[in-house]
Amino acid sequence: MLSLVALLTPALALPLLLWLAPRAWALPDPASPSSWPASFWVMALAGTTATLAGLLDWRFHRHGGRRIAAAERRAELLALALGLPLFVLLALTSGPVPLRTLLVPIVAVALAMTALIMFDEVRFHRACGRYETLLHRFLVGGNGIAFLAWMAWCAGREVGHG
């Protein structure tokens, strides 16, 4: 159940950030998608794809799919849990803190998350079938693309192209 919470947190937290952030942060208006920059559309589409794939994978395991060992569950939860500090760092660079100030911690967290995902995939997922593998690719790929789009928006905003 903790994995499900970790999976859904970014999907729920980003809209909350857009609604609750101070206007001085100059984030796109969530009520006006037509005014969103392209990177926010990429984030929305890739993040939604990743979240749906994660939900389907969670459902697959809960309803008769491949059983997950405790060690695998811990590795996945740790990788997903690193999404929280990554989200906080990116949220800060979307507002009051310049990206250049937090770039090293952002990259460090992203690399740690990548290492955990690679460990999980190599160590535990060799037994996955095609469907489960496809879900994992959409989950990891979608989140990676959403992360890069958010980073691109923060960087573009910082140099005046956001």
Kindly describe this structure.
The chain is mainly alpha-helical and about 160 residues long. About 75% of the residues lie in helices and about 0% in strands. The chain is built from 6 helices and no strands. The chain is globular, with a radius of gyration of 16 Å. The mean pLDDT is about 90.
| Broad structural category | mainly alpha
The tally of beta strands, per DSSP, is 0
Rg to the nearest angstrom?
16 Å
The overall average pLDDT, rounded, is 89
Which consecutive residue ranges, at least 5 long each, have pLDDT under 50?
none
Helix share bin: over 70%
Name a few traits of the molecule:
mainly alpha; single chain; 162 residues; globular
Outline of this structure?
The chain is mostly helical and 162 residues long. It contains six helices and no strands. The protein has one domain.
List the helices and strands and how they pair.
Layout: H1 2-20, H2 38-62, H3 70-81, H4 83-93, H5 99-124, H6 130-158
Helix pairs in contact: 1-2, 1-3, 1-4, 2-6, 3-5, 4-5
